[in-house]
Design brief:
Two copies of one chain form a homodimer. Helix content of chain A is 29%, strand content 42%. In chain A, strand 6 and strand 7 form a beta hairpin. In chain A, strands 5, 6, 7, 8 and 9 form a five-stranded antiparallel sheet that branches. A four-stranded antiparallel sheet of chain A has the order 2-3-1-4, with helices on one face. By secondary structure, chain A is α+β, with helices and mostly antiparallel strands. Strand 2 of chain A pairs antiparallel with strand 2 of chain B, so a sheet runs across the interface.
């Protein structure tokens, strides 16, 4: 089961490596990670998505996170009502005759072209995981050239 | 000067901690970090924003990154034409009489309310760093309660 975990940490160097290290030491691969400042520039928020093969090990990791001196709080959104979003940038190459079809498709997903040149476009889209999956699946037929994603963020 | 660096890495556990460790070992704090899968699920993309006090040290870090066995490529977007975007979720508490003013403000930034209940709203917005800064500055007068950001992603 995929878990989305938010960790508030002191914004100091080394903290990120220590938190990431806790997961890798247990053989847990992080699917996605978003780290940025919060309202308080002294505090950073890490949003971590992990595939938990064993819920007990994840509980142990959460306990260990809480014990780290620079960790302020740990929230597992899996058990909480929350909003989640991810941002993607997708570079596609399309045929001229596909333009109308592409525009219609992007409108459906509220996605937009942020840079376009000849038959190449950079598309920006925001959504929940399932929406992004459908978007990428649909864009595949136009020819996806490059993809950058932010990883998920969440708010209770 | 702030640098936005994109690092393509093999999607294995431990890589993230190693890359983050390279920066912290040099006393470089990562301002934001976004890690996610690419088109190839075996490869992850890390978008790292760092404040470089000394450009020479940053060059050394980039060289060291390139030497890591799981690093495929390193791109510093500072010297390249690129598109950059960040996603934020902001929870605000506003007064009923501020509703019209809030709607007008959000429209200007193409931001939208993704969850609303009484006088609390979760707002989703995407933009370049300067736009996000202006948005947050403007929202401050409504009473910002919570903020989660993805960190920047970039595409050449």
């Amino acid at each position: 089961m995929k878990h989305t975990i938010s960790v508030l940490v002191e914004n100091k160097f080394g903290v990120l490596a220590r938190v990431a290290g806790l997961f890798s030491a247990r053989g847990y691969n992080i699917s996605s990670l978003a780290v940025s400042e919060t309202l308080d520039p002294q505090i950073s928020c890490m949003t971590i998505v992990v595939q938990a093969e064993d819920e007990k090990i994840l509980e142990q990791i959460e306990k260990q996170l809480n014990k780290l001196i620079d960790v302020i709080s740990v929230t597992d959104f899996t058990k909480k009502e929350h909003v989640e979003r991810e941002l993607v940038l997708v570079k596609i190459n399309y045929l001229s005759k596909q333009k109308a079809q592409l525009d219609k498709f992007l409108k459906k997903f509220l996605a937009k072209v942020v840079h376009g040149k000849e038959n190449t476009a950079i598309i920006e889209a925001v959504g929940e995981q399932e929406q992004i999956r459908q978007l990428l699946e649909g864009l595949a037929k136009f020819g996806v050239h490059e993809l950058v994603r932010t990883g998920k963020i969440a708010m209770a």
